[in-house]
Each structure stands twice: as C-alpha cells, then as structure tokens.
C-alpha cells in the first residue's frame, strides 16, 4: 500500500478540505452529549427546529481478496489518515469524509463512529437511516449484517437499542420491526413470505409500505431471529464478482415509541421514530459477465442506484425544482430520510483494487455529494391514537380498572346482619344455595379474571422498561465510557456462520483480513472482558427466554405482530415460571401493579410474578378449595348431629314418660333423668347462642379482614370470609359438644333401660306382693 501523502493542495480534495461541511464530525461525542435523560425534552416536530446537521459520510475499505491478490491487482485508492481517501494514481484527487476506515478496521469501530449517534437519536425520537453503498463485493453486507465472528451494524444497532432501554430509567418503550426487500422494483415482505409486491403509499407522515408485517420485539435475540428468518427469503445470487451477491436492496426498520414511565400515561407525549438500516445491492460494472436473470437484476439495481445518485445530486444542488424520488421504489421509500427529516449515515464500502478503480471513484463522489445534504435532527412527538404504545397503555389501564372493580366487588358484598337464632336456619339454607352458586360462578369469574390478567400480562410484556433501580453511570454522566458490545451465543446463533467463507473458500479465505471478533476481544481491558463474559451469560439467558418471547410475541392475539402468527405457549406451570423469571429482565410493571394472588389463575400463560409468588398462590388456591370442602362436610355433620340429638332427646323423653309410673325410688330416678335432659337442652341452646354470637362477632371483623382468594370466592356468593371461618370453627365446636352430649345421652338411655328393667322386676315383685298380701288377708279372714 502506498504511503500517505499530505499535500493535497488542489483538485477535489483541496476543495473538499476547505469546505466547512468537511470538518470531521465526532459523532460519538455528539451522541454522548445528546443522550441524556433531558434529551427527551428536546423540541418536537412543529417546535423550534434544532441545529442543522449534515449526513454522516464515511468510507470503509475492505482488504484485497485472495482473488484480487492472485490476479495481481494493485492498490488504486487508499486511506490517507482518518478522514481522507486519496487516489494512488493521481495524488491530486482526494476526498474528505467524516471518517475513513482502513481495511483493518473492525465493524465495531465503524459502528461507534458511523451508527451509534443515529441509533441513539432514534431511541430519543429522531428518525435515523444508515445505509451501506458500494459496488458489488465491496463489503456492504459484511458491514451491515456481518457474521458470527464480526457482527454487523444491524445486530450492533439492535443490541445498542436494547442496551439504551435498559439504561434509560423512567421511560417505557415499545419496539417493532419490519423487514423488506426491493427486488426488480418489487417490494417484498421478508417477515411474511406471502407479502409480495406490496404497494408504497403516502400519508401526512410520509411514505409507507401498505400491509407490511410489523412484529413487536422483546429482545435482541428476538430481533435477530426475525432478521435471520427474513434473510432466508432475500434474493441472493452468484455473480462473477460475488458468489453470494445481494440481488435486492433490503430495508430493516426498527420503529421506536417511548413515553415517560408513570402510573397514568394519559396525556403524556409519546416520542416516535423509525430507524432504517439499509443494505443496498451493489452496483455492477458493465464488465460483469452476467446473463439472463442476473443481467435483469443488475439493470434494476443499477437503475435504482442511479436514481438514488440523481436524487442526492438534486437535493444538494440547491437550485433543483424537482427531485425525482418517484423514479424508483428505493428513493420513494427513502424520501423522508433524504429530505432531511432525521439523521442519515452513509457508509460507502470500497475495494482498493485497481480493477475497480472507476467504480470506487464513483462511490467516493456519491459519498462526497451526499455529505452536502442538510438534515434536521427533529424529535417526533405524537399524542394521538397512532401510537401503539398509547393504545397498549390505555388498554392495560382499562383492564386494570376492570380488575379493580372485580376486587372492589368483594368489599361491597353485603355481609349478613342481624343474624338471630330465628333466621339461622334461613341463613344455613342460604349458605347451601350459595355454595352451589359459588361453584359455577367461581368458574366463570376465574375464567374471566384469567383472561383479563392474561391480556394485561401480554400487553405489559410488550412494553419494555429498564430493570435498573438506580441511576447508573450512563452516558450522560460519563459521556465517553459507554459499554462495549459483546455478543453472546444467543445472538451469534442468528448471525450467518461464515456462510460466505465456506462457499468462497478459495476466493475469500485468503483475504488480508483482520479477525474482527478477536480483535475486539483483544482490545478489551480485563474489566471489560469480565463484563463481556457477564453479558454473554445474560444474553444466553435471554436466548432461552426468547424462545418464549417469540412465542409470546406471536401468541397474544395479534398484538405483538400486526399480522398474526402463532406458536404454542409453555405447557407446564414450571415452564411458565422459568419463562416468567427470565421475562422479568425487561419488565417489572406487572409485579408492582397486579397482586400476585391473581396471577396463578393463568397457569397456562406466563405471568410476571416470581416462582415463589406463583407457588404460594397455587397453594392458596388449593387451601381455598380445602376450606370449602371442610365447611361442606361440617355442615352435613352438624345436620346429622342435630337430628341425632333431637332423636335422643325424644327417646329420653319417651322413656321417662314410660317409666314415670314407678314407685318412689323410680320417681326419684326419673327426676334425675329429667334434670339431665334439661341440662342437655340448655347445652344445645347455649351452643346455638354461641353460634349466633360468633356470627355477630365475625361481622365486626369484616372490615379489617384481608383480601384473599377465598374471600373472593365468598364474595361471589355474598358471604364474608371471617364469618365463614368463624362458622367453620363454631360448627366444629358444636360437633364436639354434640358428640359429648350424644355419648351422655346414650349412657343415660342405657341407664334408663336398666332402671326400666329394674322397675319391671319391682313391679312384678310388687304385684306378686300385692297378690300375696291379698291372698294372705283372705286366708286369714276365712280362718
Ligand atoms: N472489511 C472487510 N473485511 C474482511 N472481509 C470483508 C470486508 N468487507 C467485505 N469482506 C468480504 O468480501 C466479500 C464480499 O463482501 P460482501 O458480500 O459484503 O459484499 P457486498 O458489497 O455486499 O456484495 P454484493 O453487492 O454483491 O452483495 C465477503 O466474503 C466478505 O466477507
């Protein structure tokens, strides 16, 4: 490679360098300064515009490929320092950019300079567009998508977006993604294979693709899995320059909505933005020996890139009256971005090879022109129903109110008053009727409640909040020290695994190429490395959760995905629980706002309560049914016991009556028995009185009693829990007393029987004595 030359005193470089727009920007510090909590208070659309910025234009050199080396290619262009690209053959031709990355630069370094400020802006409500532009095989896909060794701008941006959510306290976010390709001037939905030839429409907010699938996303892994699935549908073909050449332009859009995190989000402004990450198809030189379909694709690609070039020329011309955005689908879709609404970062990928010198020059000129486009970093704010986060928030609020009403129903249930001995039978009857009603209504209510909670949980999960309790070292405090990205297995699994390397073994493996992943790892300090490992563990966890997250996102009745798809939720409770604990990483709202008691009913659907809460709740539900069973049993026993007691009292009475005619001794015995019976009756009356008092006492406790699932069940039938428990206890005591009395009565009855038998003997003896006396008297008379 030629040595850098410093004296570019004339030609394009001289002009470029002298231009104020070419003052190298420092996007990283710019980002850091902006990304403070106050950043969300920036003026919104329609308010005073913020300072004008220009497109961030950077150039990335790739190393010479083995083929280029084999073919004896020479270096035609090189990076002269950090901001200048210079022609090897004509030192007077030089261009300056915001940054020029040499062939050994890692994608992470490119991201930090060329993308981070755009991603950060998008998270604050400022639209952003990052696109890679360059000839075929110059490294666009490598830069935008990357592979497992070297994740590209898209995965890095996705991960950064979630990192920002985690670091942004007191705000909640809703993220959704769409992914499309423009192939031969036809727009296809990559997230929905059925979405072919979609129409581009316009509204007040700009252009949009009609019917495109938008998927609400919950984690980086979730997003990357969607991209990986979408990539399967992308048109890729082999050319004589690139065995896996992108034959279509792809636009990956991350839509970000956020609002302050507070109890009632009503009236709160929502910031709304779109981050477009674009991997353009490469322009093809006329030297490309393509035929048939490849040729047709190439001409469409070239035509749309030409239109893009024309649009950019017109936009920077200043005098142009008409900008031909409508001449291609690509420029139509990029219209609002290129018109200056939001941040734009253009990463031009180039090969240093002399065989591509002309194409590289065109690319450099394109980047040069683009740099002149002025943009305004305006924060979009919306308050209307267009906001999905608003819609979800208000639905959650409404559902919570419904739940509250259900709970309030418990307290408004009229407790039984003035329970007296007279209406206790009536009350018992009511208890029996209520029990039947309770069963059926309970089932219905449980179902309704489960549905309500399930919906709240699903909606709540879609809204992402930071789990960090305290303010930590955010960029606002230490602007220069944002953490580095580290990819865990979870994310890496979704990135292509050296796909191209395997296929292009001979072609590319000999590229003079830095080992980016390793390069980045080597760069880390021990502390960073530790954090990175920790990160790896975290993301690995998230990956496990994500299989559920994806499920969740797809199974909420169409909330997560604006066009529906379905995956089964976890089947077992344990599955739900483990899913839950992992899900908490991004979500804490439900924990704070929905009582854990109510979460267990939704056993099939994961909730946000902890496993312990879940288990306790399951136990309380079991206990609830046990208590009800006990009450039923006791009630039945009470009935039997009362009946038995009455029966025995009657027997005693009857026996007493029968035995009432015996002699003096017998009379004394009978009096004793009668006294016993009276005692018995008194005991029964006193027990019943106690029962009544307990009912009255329990009413007094009603207001202080705590809400519980059992209480909820009682409410359905109009009973009070305290009352029920009190009755349960009293009935239990009653049963014990009745048992005791029954035993006594049995004993007395036995004694009575013995006495009766004795009496009969006495009577016989008496009779015999009377007869004997009579006979004796008659005998004496006759004598
Ligand atoms: N900076 C780089 N470092 C190492 N290898 C690179 C770099 N840039 C590109 N490559 C390699 O060069 C080859 C071509 O790159 P890539 O497919 O990304 O080009 P492209 O511009 O997307 O091509 P096309 O427009 O045909 O799709 C790939 O094997 C890629 O891995």
From TrEMBL:
Lineage: Eukaryota, Viridiplantae, Streptophyta, Embryophyta, Tracheophyta
Family from the record: Belongs to the TRAFAC class myosin-kinesin ATPase superfamily. Kinesin family. KIN-7 subfamily.
GO terms, biological process: microtubule-based movement
Protein's UniProt keywords contain Nucleotide-binding: yes
Protein name (record): Kinesin-like protein
Segments forming domain Kinesin motor: 54-373
Coiled coil (residue ranges): 375-462
Organism field: Aegilops tauschii subsp. strangulata (Goatgrass)
Source species, domain of life: Eukaryota
Cited InterPro entries: Kinesin-like_fam (IPR027640), Kinesin_motor_CS (IPR019821), Kinesin_motor_dom (IPR001752), Kinesin_motor_dom_sf (IPR036961), P-loop_NTPase (IPR027417)
SMART domains, per database record: KISc (SM00129)
GO cellular component: microtubule
GO molecular function: ATP binding; microtubule binding; microtubule motor activity
């Amino acid at each position: 490679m030629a040595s850098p030359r410093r004296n570019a005193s004339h030609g394009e470089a001289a002009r470029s360098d002298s231009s104020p727009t070419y003052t190298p920007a420092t996007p990283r510090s710019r980002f850091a300064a902006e990304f403070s909590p106050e950043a969300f208070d920036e003026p919104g659309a329609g308010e005073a515009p913020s300072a004008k910025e220009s497109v961030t234009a950077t150039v990335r050199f790739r190393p010479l490929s083995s083929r280029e080396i084999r073919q004896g290619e020479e270096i035609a262009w090189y990076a002269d320092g950090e901001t200048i690209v210079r022609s090897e053959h004509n030192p007077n031709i030089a261009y300056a950019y915001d940054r020029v990355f040499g062939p050994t630069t890692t994608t992470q370094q490119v991201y930090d300079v060329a993308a981070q400020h755009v991603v950060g802006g998008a998270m604050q409500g400022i639209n952003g567009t990052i696109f890679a532009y360059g000839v075929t095989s110059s490294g666009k896909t490598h830069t935008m998508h990357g592979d497992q060794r070297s994740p590209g701008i898209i995965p890095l941006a996705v991960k950064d977006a979630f990192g920002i959510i985690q670091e942004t306290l007191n705000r909640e976010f809703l993220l959704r993604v769409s992914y499309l390709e423009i192939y031969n001037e036809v727009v296809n939905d990559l997230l929905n294979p059925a979405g072919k030839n979609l129409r581009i429409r316009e509204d007040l907010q700009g252009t949009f693709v009609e019917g495109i699938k938008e998927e609400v996303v919950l984690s980086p892994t979730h997003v990357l899995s969607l991209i990986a699935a979408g990539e399967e549908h992308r048109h890729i073909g082999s050319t004589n320059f690139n065995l896996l050449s992108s034959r279509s332009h792809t636009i990956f859009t991350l839509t970000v909505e956020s609002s302050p995190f507070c109890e009632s989000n009503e009236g709160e402004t929502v910031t709304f933005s779109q981050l477009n990450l674009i991997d353009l198809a490469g322009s093809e030189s006329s030297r490309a020996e393509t035929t048939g379909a490849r040729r047709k694709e190439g001409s469409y690609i070239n035509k749309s890139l030409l239109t893009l070039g024309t649009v950019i020329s017109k936009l920077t011309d200043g005098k142009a009256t008409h900008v031909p955005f409508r001449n291609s689908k690509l420029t139509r879709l990029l219209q609002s971005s290129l018109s200056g609404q939001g941040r734009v970062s253009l990463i031009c990928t180039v090969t240093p090879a002399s065989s591509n010198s002309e194409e590289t020059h065109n690319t450099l000129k394109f980047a040069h022109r683009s740099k002149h486009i002025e943009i305004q970093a305006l924060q979009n704010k919306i308050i209307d129903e267009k906001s999905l986060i608003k819609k979800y928030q208000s639905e959650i609020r409404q559902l919570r109110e419904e739940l509250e009403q259900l709970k309030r129903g418990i307290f408004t249930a009229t407790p039984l008053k003035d329970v007296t001995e007279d209406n206790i039978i009536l009350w018992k009857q009511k208890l029996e009727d209520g029990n039947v009603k309770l069963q059926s209504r309970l089932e219905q209510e449980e179902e309704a409640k489960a549905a309500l909670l399930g919906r709240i949980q699903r909606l709540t999960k879609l809204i992402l909040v930071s789990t960090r309790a305290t303010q930590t070292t955010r960029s606002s405090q230490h602007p220069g020290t944002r953490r580095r990205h580290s990819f865990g297995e979870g994310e890496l699994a979704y990135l292509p695994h050296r796909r191209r390397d395997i296929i292009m073994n001979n072609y590319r493996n000999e590229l003079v190429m830095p080992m980016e992943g390793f390069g980045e790892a080597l760069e880390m300090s021990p502390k960073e490395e530790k954090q990175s490992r920790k990160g790896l563990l975290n993301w690995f966890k998230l990956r496990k959760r994500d299989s559920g997250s994806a499920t969740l996102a797809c199974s909420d009745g169409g909330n997560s995905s604006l066009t529906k798809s379905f995956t089964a939720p976890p089947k077992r409770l344990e599955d739900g629980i483990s899913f839950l604990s992992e899900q908490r990483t991004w979500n804490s709202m439900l924990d704070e706002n929905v009582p854990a008691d109510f979460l267990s009913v939704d056993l099939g659907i994961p909730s946000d309560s902890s496993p312990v809460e879940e288990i306790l709740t399951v136990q309380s539900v079991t206990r609830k049914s046990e208590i009800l069973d006990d009450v039923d049993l006791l009630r039945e026993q009470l009935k039997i016991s009362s009946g038995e007691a009455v029966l025995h009292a009657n027997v005693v009475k009857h026996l007493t009556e029968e035995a009432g005619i015996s002699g003096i001794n017998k009379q004394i015995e009978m009096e004793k028995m009668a006294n016993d019976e009276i005692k018995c009756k008194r005991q029964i009356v006193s027990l019943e009185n106690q029962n009544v008092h307990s009912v009255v006492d329990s009413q007094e406790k009603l207001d202080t009693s705590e809400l519980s699932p059992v209480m909820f069940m009682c409410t359905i039938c109009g009973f009070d829990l305290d009352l029920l428990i009190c009755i349960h206890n009293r009935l239990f005591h009653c049963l014990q007393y009745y048992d005791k009395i029954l035993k006594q009565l049995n004993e007395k009855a036995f004694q009575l029987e013995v006495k009766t038998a004795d009496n009969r003997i006495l009577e016989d003896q008496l009779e015999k004595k009377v007869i004997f006396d009579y006979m004796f008297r008659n005998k004496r008379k006759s004598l």
